[in-house]
Amino acid sequence: MIRSARFAFAATALLLCAFKAPEEKTIRYQVTPGFWFDGIPAFEVEMRFRGDSDGETVLELPSEWAGSRELWRQIAGLEIHGADSLGGYYDRPIIHHRPGAKIRVVYHVQSAWQEDPGFDYEKARPLVRSDWFFWHGNGVFASPKGRDSAPARFRWGKLPKRWSVASDLDHWKGKRTTVANLIDSVAIGGAGLTMVERDIDGAPFRLATLGRWTFTPDALADTIVPIIRAEDDYWGDRSTPYFVALAPTGTPSSGLSVRGTGRTDGFSIAATTGFELKQAKRLLAHEYMHGWMPNALGGLPEDKEAADYWFSEGFTDYLASKVLLRSGLWSAEDYVADKNETLLRYGTSSARNAPASDIVARFWEDPALQQVSYDRGHLLATILDAEIAVGSAGTESLDTVLRAQREAAKGSSARATDLFRETLRARTAIPLDPLVAQAQDGAPLLLSDGLFGACTRIIREQRKEFDRGYDAEATRLANGVIAGVVKDGPAFAAGMRDGMRLIAREAGKIGDSRTEIAYRVADEGGERVLRYLPEGKKEFEVQRLELDGREKDLGCNAGVKSTR
Question: Where in the numbering of this chain does the Peptidase M61 catalytic domain appear (predicted)?
Fold first, then answer.
């Protein structure tokens, strides 16, 4: 379907208006896919609202989210109707109008990539193709300044033939939500969209997928539904309408990229096509837990939110693993394997000793800083859960503290980390600040024996750093042509050379230098598989959790589940 659109906006630089009290008139949004703008696939967004009562309204286009900036650059053909004059800047136009005038805004959202982004995918930027789309509301919806809490309505426009669409915004069909909830949304659609619907204790669950995967949509739904039930049970909640979207970001010659994003009443997975169902359970449990963590417990700060990711992401990692074990969706072996991945990654991280200020400043620029924030929080929650249980003789746990915090948040404006400190102190007398300060300053977080019950032990051991022996990033950017092979490294010794083509990784575990890695490569002599231990020269002392053989004993395993 091809439609035309025209550009009808001219801006001059003026000072932005002062803050005014928000207007409570309903803002109406309509999204219509199937457009082309300047020869590029796009979808149309139409807004209708009343201008501010003083005759001046600032329209804020998408700007920054999740480390991506200038999101408004994906917006083209901006039209503003009902204005007497316009000022400001393209991303923040000032609309001059009669007091309370009817304003109509139309614009088109284009893809940030003309090819599959693969590892370069940024979740803030919409993916738009001629026959499908996938987006998060943060990169799509403009809003009048100061009206995040204003009522809003959403609907789909006319769809192209054979298209179907789905979003968590469908839960609000015919009802009012808020502008903030509209922005905190995910949507997917196209000619090849597959839908799976289930009933979870009377609440509808919908899964929407695009692309071909190694599993069926029904198999993915069968994995998600028990997780939803288990986490609802953990919080003592009834299930509510829920939506999950899965979109492909490309088929690279090697490697895997998976991005999960939690929404208020749904979550999304954007992945390269090597994503497998066996990798999904941990990710799905984490994303669904974001239905509570952290917004139901107080939320994140408006500025420098990465400072609190140890709580919003790290605690979420811990709770997800705990619920999977307790519910029987994970075995004791699964749980221990997950803890050991965290311990190994944390113990060998180049950012292990990074202060919190570095995490805040460069979180979205450095993958090691991103991950260490998660892992610090995961280990911090593990330690705290044990300390709370021991200090209260088993009458309290991290669970009871977080549930109490959730109740306290209903009548508090405090952010989640501050409210957690208050609730923890009130219920347990455990001071949180020294432990958090230790972690945030880069001091090591160490687990102690007995932390997981009598059937486990903590072992300390030396590990060499994980080193592929070639430059993985440069190889990816060269479309699989191997680059940066280190001559005295393990890959060179195994026969890898610059200029070979990397076809696939056939064995190995990224981050684990003790597990043999295998790459299928090709050169003028044909294809072959290179195998080697990806060991670098640096050594680290790391902790490892080990089951002592009694994990099948019901009493021992019950102890692990009940206390941790």
Answer: 282-353
Q: Is residue 160 part of a domain?
A: yes
Q: What is the rounded CA–CA span in Å between residue 349 and residue 538? A: 11
Q: Are 451 and 564 contacting, i.e. CB atoms less than 8 angstroms apart?
A: yes
Stretch 95-114: mean pLDDT: 97
With cut-offs at 50, 70 and 90, classify the pLDDT of residue 556.
low
In a domain, 91, yes or no: yes
Q: Give the model's confidence band at 435: pLDDT under 50 very low, under 70 low, under 90 confident, else very high.
A: confident
Q: How many domains does the chain have?
A: 4
Going by C-beta distance under 8 Å and a sequence separation of 6 or more, which residues neighbour residue 293?
A: 311, 312, 315, 316, 319, 416
Tokens standing for residue 407: 């109740």
- In this structure, which long-range contacts are made by residues 327-332, counting pairs with CB atoms below 8 Å and at least 24 apart in sequence? 327/226, 327/229, 327/230, 327/233, 329/226, 329/227, 329/230, 329/281, 329/285, 330/281, 332/455, 332/547, 332/551, 332/557, 332/560
Which amino acid is present at 471?
Answer: D
3-class state of residue 195 by DSSP:
strand
Per-residue pLDDT tens digits for 49-58: 999 999 999 9
- Amino acid residing at 494: A
Angle formed by the axes of helices 398-409 and 217-235, nearest 10°? 80
What contacts 361, CB < 8 A, 6 or more positions away? none
510/555 same-domain check: no
141/270 same-domain check: no
Work out the number of other CB atoms within 10 angstroms of the CB of residue 550: 14
Specify the residue for token string 């680059």.
Answer: 483
Q: How far apart are CA 48 and CA 5, in angstroms?
A: 18
| Structural domain contains residue 463 | no
CB 315 within 8 A of CB 293: yes
**Ramachandran bin of 524, using left for φ above 0, alpha for ψ from -120 to 50, beta for the remaining angles:** alpha
The crossing angle, in degrees rounded to 10, of helices 332-347 and 554-563 is 50
pLDDT in tens, 344-359: 999 999 999 999 999 9
CA distance 485 to 58: 53
Region 409-427: mean pLDDT is 95
Residue 393: partners with Cβ closer than 8 Å, 6 or more residues away: none
- Asked if 310 contacts 373 with a C-beta cutoff of 8 angstroms, the reply is yes
Q: Which two tokens mark 523?
A: 């050169």
∠ CA 508-512-513, rounded to 5°: 90
Question: Helix axis angle, 316-326 relative to 367-391, nearest 10°?
Answer: 60
Q: What mean pLDDT comes out for the span 498-505?
A: 94
Q: Measured between alpha carbons, how far is 36 from 484 in angstroms, rounded to an integer?
A: 41
Cβ atoms of residues 260 and 268 within 8 Å: yes
Residues 384 and 397 in one domain: yes
What is the DSSP code (8-state) at residue 182?
Answer: H
Residue 541 lies in a domain: no
Per-residue pLDDT averaged across 520-542, rounded?
Answer: 96
Band (pLDDT 50/70/90 cuts) for residue 254 is low
In 3D space, the residue among 312, 317, 303 whose CA is nearest the CA of residue 419 turns out to be 312
State whether 368 and 476 are in the same domain.
no
Which of 454 and 158 is assigned the larger pLDDT? 158
Q: Give the residue numbers spanning the domain of 35.
A: 1-192
